[in-house]
Amino acid sequence: MKITRITAHQIDLPLHEGTYSWSGGKSVDVFDCTVVAIETDSGLVGHGEITPLGPVYLPSFAAGARTAIAE
Fold this sequence. Notes:
There is one protein chain. By secondary structure, this protein is mostly beta strands. It has a single domain, classed as Enolase-like, domain 1 (2-Layer Sandwich). The protein is built from 1 helix and 5 strands, in the order βββββα. It has a 3-stranded antiparallel beta sheet with strand order 1-4-5, with helices on one face. The protein has a two-stranded antiparallel ribbon with strand order 2-3. The chain is elongated and about 45 Å long. The mean pLDDT is 82.
């Protein structure tokens, strides 16, 4: 089995509860979600999600993951 395709999809997930806040004055009202799909030559497809808190949590997540996959 070999990987034939990797795609990353960006989805904005609005929070129904309003704003999510944590220490340091950080907050979000929309999660920047990244869903990754990996396809194989045998027809299997797997999906995974990258942490939706984006650069206010750790800059390497969400947009950074999409950039790495695009390369």
